[in-house]
Write the structure tokens for this entry.
Amino acid sequence: MSRAVAILGGSGAQRKRLALRWTRAGEKVIIGSRDRQRAQDAARNIAARLGPSLPISGMENSAACAASDLCVLTVPFASQADLLKQLKPAFRKGTVLIDATVPLASSVGGRSSRVLGVWQGSAAQQTAELVPKGVLVAAAFHNISSDVLGGDASVDCDAIICSDDDNARQAAAELALKIPGVRAIDGGKLENARIVEQITALLISINLRYKTHGVGIRITGI
Amino acid sequence: MSRAVAILGGSGAQRKRLALRWTRAGEKVIIGSRDRQRAQDAARNIAARLGPSLPISGMENSAACAASDLCVLTVPFASQADLLKQLKPAFRKGTVLIDATVPLASSVGGRSSRVLGVWQGSAAQQTAELVPKGVLVAAAFHNISSDVLGGDASVDCDAIICSDDDNARQAAAELALKIPGVRAIDGGKLENARIVEQITALLISINLRYKTHGVGIRITGI
């Protein structure tokens, strides 16, 4: 992939750690943030860690979105709709948007081991409703904990990808395979994202029970 | 475990194959069925395969339930509530009931890659509402395909167990560990069964996409 990957969102650990992984894999990465300065600082931190000449930069979210036709959305659910409304003019026809949002109940003060019901069926389907026509949505990367993304170890987790568009599915699969250890699993239609999103809440439950961080899942028998 | 395991349900493959696995592991198994004759035939088939002196028998569902304080429910969702109402007088206080029911939309003519919304939150919670007080409910064995249970190979799948009762959770874990390869994962409260049940629909989607049978899941990082 020679095109840039824009990772849009707030200030979460997952966004920076995906940026770290994809930069290390040779991708041209743009970190998006509400605040341009914070995005640039995050990009500089990664460059300082991996090599100052690497093609990683930071931009305000709308600018990052406009600068790329491959965007990954990692945002708390409570901010998802507002950010997508803001990004609306920045999207280009044919842009692939990979949504990693999980509608955890902690978004509204509830437990992170529970999810909210989303009218459209899933956070990813809400995204599909809110983006302009012609933006191609896939859901992926929900189940990979930022704890395991942080280092450089192989990641023992699959990325289950749900999409109604083959190009978006393919782009998400390529990005998944750039993270050592991760397999890209075709999880079917975008509507199935509701299950994949909920699995994250289950993994958080299991982390709480076992006092672990970063449990993940593998699909067996493929 | 010296007590008998009663596997209650209809005529599904999962019931017979769990019976096969647990009989092979040395458990005393009672196969339950609506029809006593069919239950006895199923038990005889397993005895013919594994050894005629093994303690496996067949009974009508209510008799099987009354004969054991450890029951496993593997029934199509459409039959779950009716069977539980029928079993009500047969349950004893302290009986452990392990529910493996998945509310697949195919129960009402829909797709097996989708689930129905259950008012209580999950099929397992519907079960908990329908059994007499004092029956201890756990949810488990949703994600283990009957295709992989059929042989004698090690099963590459975890059993995620959800329960509000430690004895029920423990009993389900012991049964899980009797199947070679299966790990028992503590999935938290019974309410989390809604996620574990839905994972089965996702696994069915993945089977359809990959033209496989019997994909499963593993929790990693524990």
In short: Residues 59 and 148 of chain A are 25 Å apart (CA to CA). The helical segments of chain A are 13-24, 36-50, 61-66, 77-87, 123-130, 146-149, 166-177, 193-210. Chain A touches chain B at residues 113-114, 145, 148, 156-157, 160, 185-189, 192, 194-196, 198-199, 201-203, 205-206, 208-210, 212, 214-222 (CB under 8 Å). The beta strands of chain A are 4-9, 28-33, 56-60, 70-74, 96-99, 136-139, 158-163, 183-186, 216-220.
